[in-house]
Design a protein that fits this description.
By secondary structure, the chain is of the alpha+beta class. The chain has 2 domains: 46 residues, no CATH class; 36 residues, no CATH class. The protein contains 3 helices and 5 strands; from the N terminus they run E-H-E-E-H-H-E-E. Strands 2-1-3 form a 3-stranded antiparallel β-sheet. It is globular. The N and C termini lie far apart (30 Å). The relative contact order is 0.19. It binds zinc ion. Zinc ion binds next to helix 1.
């Protein structure tokens, strides 16, 4: 089962558990977590390079093109709690 990393969307409201990020084991088919299991504040999944490829550099893995190719959306923080898809 893959391990996914989550981090608080709003660090100001986060608890110790989610402020620095935490890992959760989930099936690929499981819905991503939306809230911290400890404090209930919003969390977002951190895009991990693990499992996609180990031969490319992290920089190219996290390029916009590569993220889109793998079906991820990069979120840009515009304002407190607001994100814009690019
Ligand atoms: Zn929390």
């Amino acid at each position: 089962m893959p391990t996914y990393e989550y981090i608080a969307v709003n660090a100001a409201k986060a608890c110790d558990h989610c402020r620095a990020g935490f890992e959760v084991r989930q099936r690929m088919s499981d819905e991503p977590l939306k809230n911290c299991p400890q404090c209930g504040n919003a969390v977002q999944r951190v895009i991990s390079a693990v499992g996609i490829s180990t031969r490319k550099s992290t920089k190219s893995l996290l390029s916009d093109e590569n993220i889109k190719k793998h079906g991820f959306t990069r979120l840009v923080k515009e304002d407190e709690g607001k994100y814009r898809k690019i």
